[in-house]
């Protein structure tokens, strides 16, 4: 029998999503349990969640709020005062607590002890309205060649990349085999492993993204980095040597695009007297502060607008010509390009 406790979570930008705490004495039962959850919208976008589990027993909220990593569910849920969700899978692997939730419009992958949303699988379209969409702008400014996805998760970025750039060869690394298997079954990942009519495909590698074997002959045209654990960027990404090694995996003129997470309150000691404000606001992010040491003069940043997310993004290489970049992208990716800035001091 699966037992579950739930709470509504809302971060400062007004996004609300349910998070789960579960204990599965029988993993098979958790797979097949028909646990139905309802969202009841309250003022200020907070949600009250009730659950009917195994005979209708109500489970009351008990967890503290957690940070969410996306906000597309806000748009999905708008106008629905009561929306039923079902838990498709709730289980624990060596690396993660894995929960996949189904709604009428999308499926959500919640991972680790934070139960943050790590992947979205929208049923009507591949766009998410969040940072995953940003990765789909990368192929326009890199050479032809394979693109690595480090931190594949449930494949949200891969879905949109192959829809917009159908001839891409994607090489995805994910350390959790159980997660990959569940994403194949519930999040459409297996569809991407079949060559499409333009030759595009996702090749999945189960293993450590930092392993010396995580390479391809000739190097990658681009590398997408989206690596989190327990709500934090992986500690490897706070080491300059990690970025130097990843840079060596690129072909000539290749680039790396990174989800760097949110701001960090500690002040930077980079530069002389610079405050973390204005064009120096990137100093608030510890991952970007590390990357600038590996890519001096060749690092760019953006902070996603507050209505979307609090995430920082980073892009290696010289600053692209924004007009040329925009002309190669669909309209939905053009509007925020002007938020990219080179990392500078002062």
UniProtKB/TrEMBL annotation:
Keywords recorded for this protein, A-Z:
Methyltransferase, Transferase
Quote the protein name from its UniProt record.
Answer: S-adenosyl-L-methionine-dependent methyltransferase
Q: What protein family does this chain belong to?
A: Belongs to the methyltransferase superfamily.
InterPro entries (UniProt xref):
Lys/N-term_MeTrsfase_sf, SAM-dependent_MTases_sf
Q: Name one GO molecular function term.
A: methyltransferase activity
Q: In terms of domain of life, where is this protein from?
A: Eukaryota
GO term, biological process aspect, one: methylation
Which species is the source of this protein? Answer: Aristolochia fimbriata (White veined hardy Dutchman's pipe vine)
């Amino acid at each position: 029998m699966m037992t579950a406790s739930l709470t509504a979570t809302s971060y400062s930008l007004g996004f609300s999503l349910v998070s789960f705490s579960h204990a599965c004495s029988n993993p098979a039962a958790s797979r097949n349990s028909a646990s139905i959850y309802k969202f009841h919208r309250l003022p200020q976008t907070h949600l009250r969640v009730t659950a009917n589990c195994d005979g209708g027993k109500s489970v009351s909220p008990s967890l503290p709020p957690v940070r969410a990593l996306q906000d597309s569910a806000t748009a999905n849920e708008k106008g629905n005062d009561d929306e039923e969700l079902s838990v498709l899978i709730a289980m624990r692997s060596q690396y993660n607590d894995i929960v996949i939730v189904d709604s009428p419009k999308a499926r959500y992958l919640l991972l680790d002890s934070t139960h943050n949303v790590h992947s979205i699988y929208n049923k009507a379209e591949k766009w998410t309205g969040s940072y995953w969409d940003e990765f789909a702008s990368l192929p326009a400014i890199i050479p032809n060649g394979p693109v690595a996805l480090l931190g594949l998760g449930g494949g949200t970025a891969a879905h949109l990349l192959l829809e917009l750039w159908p001839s891409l060869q994607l090489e995805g690394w994910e350390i959790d085999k159980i997660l990959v298997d569940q994403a194949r079954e519930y999040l459409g990942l297996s569809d991407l492993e079949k060559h499409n009519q333009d030759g595009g495909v996702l090749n999945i590698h189960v293993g450590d993204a930092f392993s010396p074997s995580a390479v391809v002959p000739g190097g990658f045209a681009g590398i997408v980095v989206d690596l989190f654990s327990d709500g934090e960027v992986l500690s490897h990404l706070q080491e300059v040597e990690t970025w130097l090694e990843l840079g060596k995996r690129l072909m000539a003129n290749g680039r790396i695009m990174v989800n760097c997470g949110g701001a960090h309150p500690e002040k930077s000691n980079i530069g002389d007297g610079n405050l973390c404000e204005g064009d120096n606001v990137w100093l608030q992010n510890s991952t970007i502060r590390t990357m600038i040491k590996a890519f001096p003069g060749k690092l760019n940043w953006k902070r996603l607008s507050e209505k979307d997310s609090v995430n920082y993004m980073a892009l290696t290489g010289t600053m692209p010509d924004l007009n040329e970049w925009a002309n190669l992208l669909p309209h939905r990716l053009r509007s925020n390009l002007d938020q990219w800035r080179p990392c500078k001091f002062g």
